[in-house]
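User: Predict the structure for this protein chain, please.
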Amino acid sequence: MFKKILIANRGEIAVRIIRAARELGITTVAVYSEADREALHVALADEAICIGPAKSTDSYLDMNAVLSAAIITQAEAIHPGFGFLSENSKFATMCEEMNLIFIGPAGLVMDKMGDKINARSEMIKAKVPVIPGSDGEVVTADEALEVANRLGYPVMLKASAGGGGKGIRKVKSQEELLPAFESASQEAKSAFGNGAMYIEKVIYPARHIEVQILGDSFGNVIHLGERDCSLQRNNQKVLEEAPSIAIGKTLRTKLGQAAVRAAQAVNYENAGTIEFLLDEQKGEFYFMEMNTRVQVEHPVTEFVTGIDIVKEQIRIAAGQELSYKQEEIQMTGHAIECRINAENPKFNFAPSPGKITDLYLPSGGVGLRVDSAVYPGYTIPPYYDSMIAKVIVHGENRFDALMKMQRSLYELEIEGIVTNVDFQLDLISDSHVIAGDYDTSFLMEEFLPTYAEKD
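Assistant: Here is the predicted structure, written as structure tokens:
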């Protein structure tokens, strides 16, 4: 096992990794920007080193600075968390070249699965169902028009690189295609340095279902069941739950087997997530993409399986065999996660950085967890993602979990800044959400229009 690892991240995921490492008896090194000197992950780590100014490109995304910090502190491995360098194949390769263990898949595997055009090709070879779409990259707007007309509208334009909802456009007609193609490609190029686009047929209505997988260096791959991530705003997840109310035992087995095949096809090691779109009416699912890192929503899977995914990541990277076999994986009860953001839902979810003057996090009872890196007196910097906490609950069944989440959100108090807590409480209390009657379009097309009309 490692003696010391460096966490190349910030916020709640950095805190989460530090805690897991400490429980494994591993010393931790935090890196931080000048804006994060007072951050919780800096205080909790055994060592901390500043790697640059507030701007992420000059600190958390500066590969040389992160690697230098690892060498100086004699760390043996680097855990990238999610975001920042977590899916950067060049960084993973650079770690290997400097005899540092990257706690994640190899750079070559990231290239295969991180590039969504390549990933589609690999999945077709592995006999994993994919969404009907273009054969490879769509280079020009004219080519995009030809493909879209062949598939039939609506279609989805997608950037081959990156994630987080960037470089994605839903196109409902031929007239919308050309401007959407240009803007999506430019956005992708600005965000990821790669403007390559491809096109898929829109599966509608659909649910966004993802399957958590773990693979080790001995060729073992298992899945930990599915998460339903259909409640999204602008292609970004807002609330997640496990298991999905839309999936029965037979379909769950098929999804899990497809996810394992997908991971085996690229000799995947460490934690990863295979994302699918589910056509609930037909009972058919289609591969969307693979995330080659730990997910924001991993705690709901941890609650229903009892498996610490971050600890498994570290053990796998240290060369250990998976702690579990597929037949040992059981999903018990139901878990829900709400993302708490420093943002103002009444003003188009504008970021709301500032000083937290008072804070009360919900507690008490079995099956409640809050992952956060904020505290009273902490000033949220304006330079990074607006997520400041995740409230995760686990109940004996879905209704129990829903009621526990409502209770938890009622208790959550954050003073000094505007947050989306009330928005999440309204969402979790909505009759459609309680009934499980929603798909990927629900939040944007049904819930938000009525929410905006409220005082």
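The chain has 15 helices and 22 strands.
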